[in-house]
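Reopening: Coproporphyrinogen III oxidase still failing for me.
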Amino acid sequence: MSTSHAVVVGGGIAGLAAARELARGGVRVTVLEGSPLIGGKLRVSEIAGLAVDEGAESVLTRRPEALDLVRDLGRGDDLRAPGTTSSAILSRGALRRFPAGQVMGVPSDLRALAASRVLSPAGLARVPLDLVLPETPRGGDVSVAAYVGARLGREVVDRLVEPLLGGVFAGRVELLSFETALPAVAAAARTHRSLIGAAQGVRGASSKDSGPVFATLPGGLGTLPGLVADDVVAAGGTVRTGATVRELRRRDGGWRLTIGPTRAPEQLDADAVVIAVPAAPAARLLKADVPAAARELAGIEYASMAIVTLAYPAAAFPRLPKGSGYLVPAVESDPERGGRGVKAVTFSSVKWPHLRDRDPGLIVVRCSIGRFGEERTLQRSDTELADVAVAELAATCGVTGPPVETRVTRWGGGLPQYNVGHADRVARVRAAVADQPGLAVAGAAYDGLGVPACVASAHAAATRILDDLRSREGADHGAEGTRAQ
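Support: Ran it again with your exact input. Result attached.
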């Protein structure tokens, strides 16, 4: 198979992971990344002399794909666990512990829910009705807000489920799909009349492993793409940056890619292509030869957000934070309702002991700003966004004085929205792509936003391409044998 050439469009973690599997499968691989840097939403840079992630900072350990990749790269011993995963929620004017036993905000323990005081007395009184209400009819997909609200009341949606999903998707619960945004709960809800019972079922079926829920790398998770790219190159592959693919067309049993500016286009032929870019550019590339997939991909919306990273002297905090951070529900943070605009705060130096050890005199904090539809919030300048984050920490944590250094990272159109009907949409995309030999798609737009899900999609795409190339080579060898006779 060494004569086969595959091109991976997109140098994010999904594209790089797919390229690595293809290269290790004996395929000559070229990765084309349009931006100057590989890694997509995984990026690390220094602030106040410390390497701190600008995008995702950890992987979920309950899924094996990302950890397996790190171990396959020979870096398993480098993995770092958080010092704490205890988090809070800003609700009804105070920071409160998340209730024990919740599954993505869906409660399974009513006593723990009451003890948390996250809900008002009226909101708390509404929740147990779920245990006696008749089954909520559910044919096709529905929104998170519709189903969870019908079972548990609106306060559970607004003050527990929404802030957790806001941290993952930066989305709106009125639009997000119950099936794809809360897949484990949605599946359990098909066999439980009560949603509380479904959450209890999910917790009962989950692993009893008491190990850490998250893991990262000592130099930041943003170092992972570079490690994967190095492995691709070591296996004989090529990784190019600043190489924007403008067109993809079927040609002579393979594919022709047009790269670069219209005034000086470059053409590259491949036996197979993996498209590992966001939905909009993927739709543009597929429009000519796979229009059905292109139409579906064009319908996937994206949310923008910004991460404001602040480095404070430890003395700026009247007392050091004990938890890893806190979430802010939209009903508390929406600027249109008088809120401050921050949706999540991570005390990075508390969450990651290796970061604190490198400079005990600094506390690094990351503040996330922006939800789907909040374009006006993100139209403010970097200075204004930093001021929003500083005001949030002053109001909630009593932080005094200015930060030592500030960094604002904007992720425009960074998070795909898994809105109602998303699973069916993805199935239609894959069905259309499956009709095209030597073509596969991968990335966050399909089956999950986290790094493990992206790596899983890369594995599926690479497997499809390797199987297709092997079947073609087998057919060619068979034809050659027939001619020789």
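The CA atoms of residues 345 and 367 lie 5 Å apart. If you still see a failure, please send the error message rather than a screenshot.
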